[in-house]
Amino acid sequence: MDRNSNTYTFLYAAIMVIIVAAVLASVSMALKPAQKKNVEIEKNKISWHR
Asked: Rounded to two decimals, what is the model's pTM?
């Protein structure tokens, strides 16, 4: 495939968007338990200060 064609550029960009989206979704799912734990800690701090 000709690397200077518009089709190649569009296809490359589309594949990169899909890969980056998949990585971000995976990281988000992996960090979800830590996020929930931090929310609970923050709620306990707020209720403790009142």
From this structure: 0.70
Sign of CA dihedral 41, 45, 48, 50: negative
Radius of gyration of the chain from its Cα atoms, rounded to whole angstroms: 21
pLDDT digits (tens, 9 = 90+) for 2-27: 989 999 999 999 999 999 999 999 99
How far apart are the C-alpha atoms of 14 and 7, rounded to whole Å?
Answer: 10
What is the distance between the alpha carbons of residues 37 and 26, in angstroms, rounded to a whole number? 18
Full residue range of the structural domain in which residue 46 is found = 1-50
Number of structural domains found in the chain:
1
